[in-house]
Every structure is written in C-alpha cells, then in structure tokens.
Amino acid sequence: MSIGLKDIAQKTGFSVNTVSRALRGDSRISAGTTAIISRAASELGYIPNAIAASMRSSRSKTIGVVSADSANPFFSEVIRGIEESARHFGYQILLANTEESAKREADLVRMFLCRQVDGIIAMPTYDKDLDHADLYGRLSIPFIFAGRYLDGLKDHCVLHDDVEGQRSVVEHLLDKGHRNILCLAGPKKVSNTHDRLAGIREAFESRHLALEENYIVHAMGHIEDGYAITNHALNRGLEFSAIVCFNDMLAMGVLKSLHENNLSVPSDVEVFGYDNLYMSQFMQPSLSTVDVPKFRLGAVAMETLVAHIEDDSLPYAQRNVSTRLIFRESTR
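RE: above sequence
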C-alpha cells in the first residue's frame, strides 16, 4: 500500500497542508516541525509523487542530456559533472547517445520535449541536410551546448578553446624541429574538428611554414581508427616524425601501430593526444595530451542551464573553461 500525505498527517498530528509544505521545504514551516514530519515520512516509507509535484510547479525537475559517443570516456566524465551539478540543484537527468548521428540527435531532442524536460544539454553535430541551428533555435525551453557549438548559437555554449589548445601543441612540435607532422583530425561534422584544424593551420602560419594537406586525415575518433590510419600512412611510405591526434582514443591506436612497426616513441616518433583521459597516464609510454577539464565542463553547463531555467529573461553568453598541455613520455 502506498503511503500518502494523509498517513503522515495522522501519524504526526499536523494537517495535510502543513505536511505538504514541510516536505516541499517551505521556509514558513519551523525547523522543528519540518524535522518531525520528515522523520515520520522516512519511517513510513513515503515516496514523493514527482508527477503531481511537477504539475503543481509546472516543472518536471528533469534535464535532457544528448551525449555524442558512448564509446568515448571523455563524454562520461562530462556527464558525471552534469549529473553531480544537477543533483546539487535538485534536478535529475535523462541521458541518451546520438553516436554522432545528426538525425538521431534531432529525434532525441523531440523525444525530450515530449517528456517535458525543463531544459536540454547537448553535444551537437553538423549535417548539411538537417538544420540543427533552426531546430534548437525554435525550442521553447532553455538549452546549452557542452564542449561544442553550432554556428549562430555560440552564446548557448560552454567551450574549451580548441583553436588555442591545438595550436599550442603544433607550435611546440614545430619549435622542436618537426616539419612532417601527421595530423589525425576528428569527424568533419563536429565543431571541435574545425577549430583544432584551424589551430594546426595557425601554428604553421605563425612559423611561416607550409602545411601539406596529405598529412591531414579525418577519423571518427576511435582507437581502431588511430591504429588503421597510422598503419596505412606507414604502408604508403609517408614520412613523419610526430603525430598529433584529435583525441586520446586515436592516440592509443597510434601507439599500438608504431610499436608493432618497430618505431620507438618518442625517439622515432613523438605522439600528442587531446582530452587527457584518465587512462592516458597509464599507457606505455604515458601519453602527452591537452587537458580538458571534463567534469568542470559538465558542471558549468548544468549550472548555466539552471540559471536560465530559473530566470528566462537572463541573456545567453558564451562561457569557457581553460585547457593546458600535459607533457608525458610520448614526447621528448
């Protein structure tokens, strides 16, 4: 049998109205009364009716989170930040993955609207056949992009400066004398790829050097991609002394390929990742990378979203979290 407010009222001697207000945290109810009612509710095993509460407040206290790639630990750390921050503000999250499919992303956004979420946090993708900027721009609820952006909606973003992060890596390698740098770029349909490629180009331009386009290869960003691309580059005789990777997952595949081809890291080839996944420090050799504060990225995205839920007149503005270079054994 379910326990209701009437049962708690009978047990404590307070009115149903007082019980309801105390369990909602009404500041007009004394601390002593709230403690008695809360204790009785716990003893009786009372479970709040979230649906009824959302109907009263016109809010569901849930956030839809559209993640990008369930195979990449980067996103699990971002989501952990979102979830912990959501709990702090009294929200719960509904999570779904697009697997980098723009169509699935659009379907998920619509599904979350049907679930009456109070806001959406997304890691969006581009698609020439789908106008995602229009989809999000038409939303009647607040939304924030975490770590990525869509053109025209950058004020809805919490970003890490990918241009600067990748430029710093390549400038470092160029200043050490590397000229043939194999660049494993990410998928063309995400903003991070465009920004990191811009950083690579800016680094070469700043040193008055030419970047050869055949040294840029796009990949989905998985371990097997880094492994296959490196094998292919070696098999076609492409000469390189350093490899910069779109993420640490690609770099892991790169390290395996170089090892199997009897190339020493870092003496023969230096390798740089991006994201600073937890496992990167335990690789052999440990991976130099760009640290992105993933947990903080998620927490700030959630904090920003809640601010807009609580105040719909609040203007949107782009926010940024800082990155830094981490030097380990895969570079000299």
